[in-house]
């Protein structure tokens, strides 16, 4: 049993559906679901105290504020996505808000807006054999259910387990399950297990082809060479690489 924000208690339910109409998605920690009217008033009051929001003239939330409110909220949330009984994706965060729009259904995971818990969002991906392939953390993450993709923002750190533990840091990272591609951008740094370092503004990791691509300006360094150029293609562990245009230095032992 776990007490939620409004004082009610709910039993832990491993089989509770998270996203309506998506049989493979699961919400395994309890969530608070309020009716539109009660939730709207409660959430607006909280925002008014915390963020200084302005009430409408009749004392209630405006239409814009009501439209921006989540349809469902969870604290200490964990979201699991599976396919044909195999785990595909596990995400956990201090807080999760679900939005059911006409065009799409998505969840925003991130810091607790009330309690102040700023623990990063944790993500674990699994390959077709059920083995962990990537571990990731970010300040905030938005998961789009029907599109089967997510966008991570702020302080992104990832470990490519399938590439021997290559580490990647960036400002943002987007993942699309359909093509198995990760796009990291904004001060990207990739470091291999043997010390090779790639810095650039954007890197595309194709997990199917097991390749990293930096189409723009890049800097690449090993123990014996330093290269600056444009258009790098490398194996995901940075053991093999080529580039379209570059200049650099090579250290030769005498």
Task: Enumerate the spans where pLDDT stays under 50 for 5 or more consecutive residues.
Answer: 1-58, 250-254
Shape: elongated
How big a fraction of the residues is strand? over 45%
Order of helical and strand elements: EEEHHEEEEEEEEEEEEE
If you had to describe this structure to a student in words, what would you say it looks like?
The protein has 254 residues and is mainly beta. It is built from 2 helices and 16 strands. The strands form 2 sheets. It has a 6-stranded antiparallel beta barrel. The protein has a two-stranded antiparallel ribbon with strand order 1-2. The longest helix has 16 residues. The protein is elongated and about 65 Å long. The N terminus and C terminus are likely disordered.
Describe what is shown at a glance.
By secondary structure, the protein is mainly β. The chain has helices at 36-51, 63-68; strands spanning 2-3, 9-10, 25-27, 72-83, 86-100, 105-110, 121-126, 132-138, 140-144, 149-160, 166-176, 181-191, 197-206, 211-221, 225-235, 241-250.
SSE blueprint:
Blueprint (H helix, E strand, L loop, with lengths): L1 E2 L5 E2 L14 E3 L8 H16 L11 H6 L3 E12 L2 E15 L4 E6 L10 E6 L5 E7 L1 E5 L4 E12 L5 E11 L4 E11 L5 E10 L4 E11 L3 E11 L5 E10 L4
Antiparallel strand pairs: 1-2, 3-4, 4-5, 5-6, 5-7, 6-9, 7-8, 8-10, 9-10, 10-11, 11-12, 12-13, 13-14, 14-15, 15-16
List keywords for this structure.
single chain; 254 residues; mainly beta; six-stranded antiparallel barrel; two-stranded antiparallel ribbon; 2 helices; elongated; disordered N terminus; disordered C terminus
